[in-house]
Write a structure and sequence with these properties.
By secondary structure, this protein is mainly β. The longest helix has 12 residues. It folds into two domains: 110 residues, no CATH class; 90 residues, no CATH class. Helix content is 15%, strand content 39%. It has a nine-stranded antiparallel beta sheet with strand order 1-9-8-7-6-5-4-3-2, with no helix packed on it. The protein contains three helices and 13 strands.
Length: 228
Amino acid sequence: MRKVFLVILVLNLVSCKSQVKKKENTSEKNNTMEYFDISKYKVLEVDDKYSSSGKDLYLKDDKLRIKILYLNDVIQIEETSIENKFQLIKVFFESNKSLKIVGSKFYNFSIGKWEYYDEKGQLIKEINYDLDYKLTINDLAKNMKDKYNLDIMDVKKTDNVNRYIDSQKTKLPLYEIYYNDNTQIGILNCYVINGNTGDVLFKTTRLAETEEKQGSLYQKFIESYDKK
């Protein structure tokens, strides 16, 4: 995963505060309350890519890699697609096995709506991580395919995708895309994308094996932005 400047992470956390919708004084209840059931996973194959420790399980089928992690007072399920980088996260209370948190990720950053429940199944909080982006991941994928012939859903072609709010300079939601070059092995074509319009704001190339040593793509983008 690419190293992003601490300031960007802080800005993301600040941005998320405006996306939180608390449900403290509501009677809204999860009428289809979900519970953790280990038996539904017994038919799956063990994933030899990982070494299990303690009660943790690493499983797979034709389309998913599944982690079952026993953490402090909770059980966390991570279902990651092998066809793209979408990931479904579910966290259950270990005490009564009821659903505590459900949400999705793409390339390890949160997307869409996340829901938080108490042990009685009451919805107590929602966070919509897409609110600051006019282009969702699916919108971005279509835009990059239609305009630039880049398939960010193809895990063989796409090395990484990231996003954040640039509150310091451009005041825009930004996506970063690291895409394997079609003709040169070991070369990444790196893009900074406007998260509202889908326009390419900055493009450069990097060596894949030394990419993390070449500094933040955002910083390179800002250096170029300041020269305009």
